[in-house]
Amino acid sequence: PKGTMAFTGKYEFEGDENYDAFVQKIGLPSDKAEMGRNYKIVTEVVQNGNDFTWTQHLPGGHTTTNTFTVGKEADMETMGGKKFKAIVKMEDGKLVADFPNYHHTAEICGGKLVEISTSSGVVYKRTSKKIA
């Protein structure tokens, strides 16, 4: 079936658009914003049917892991460390979730992980290339 195991892999940050405007809009503290800038964040995804484990490896050995099942409420954590509850949906092969102050989608496009976050009209796009 379409979309099965499509996300599984390890992806390294390749490029982004609108980072500064976006982190400002969501109120990310400047030290966290600085940490995320131009750092090659590695995103590791394990997909087992509708169950996902989504881990981001950040500078200095920090990791953020979110485990969720499509269509069910899950406890999540933002890059900035805020805890919240969200229901991740699957729409046209994209994962879609509402974070506390932005709307997030993730999809695999030509072997790359493309993530788009939108907050009050500011669209932040991050592309990561598959490394494993």
UniProtKB/TrEMBL annotation:
Tell me which domain of life the UniProt entry assigns to the organism this sequence originates from: Eukaryota
Q: Which Pfam families match?
A: Lipocalin_7
Q: In the UniProt record, does the keyword Ligase occur?
A: no
| Residue span, Cytosolic fatty-acid binding proteins domain | 9-26
Q: Entry's PROSITE patterns? A: FABP
Q: Which UniProt keywords apply?
A: Cytoplasm, Lipid-binding, Transport
PANTHER family according to UniProt: FATTY ACID BINDING PROTEIN
Q: What is this protein called?
A: FABP6 protein
Give the encoding gene's name.
Fabp6
